[in-house]
Amino acid sequence: MSSAVRTYIHQNRKSLKTVAFFCTQDGSESNVFKEMESLCEKAPLATLKLRKKEVKKDEYVHRVKQFIAEIQSVKNPSTNKERK
Q1: CA 25 to chain centre
Q2: Which phi and psi (to 5°) does residue 7 adopt?
Q3: At what angle are helices 32-40 and 3-12 packed, to 10 degrees?
């Protein structure tokens, strides 16, 4: 996790009501979401990890839409039921 993200979370964690995490990464696996959850002291509504090759090939759009839908369904369960 970048020091900028770590600092932001540390400085704002008490005011974060809900969280969802996403990241892009080039190669090796990481535990960045576990670290972020620990710093926030909150479980995320959703997570999304995109690899560099997915972004370069424009293969990420569907996954981003799923991530957004997952957040919306948790935040607005009644709205989600109406859409079905």
Answers
A1: 13
A2: -65, -45
A3: 20
Residue recorded with tokens 């704002």: 12
Q: In the numeric block, which tokens belong to residue 38?
A: 């620990």
**pLDDT above 60: residue 23:** yes
Closest CA to 43 of 19, 66, 67: 19
Stated as kind and residue range, the H or E segment containing 50 is strand 47-51
CA nearest neighbour of 54 among 67, 68, 64, 44: 64
Tens of pLDDT along 48-81?
Answer: 999 888 888 888 899 999 999 999 988 776 654 4
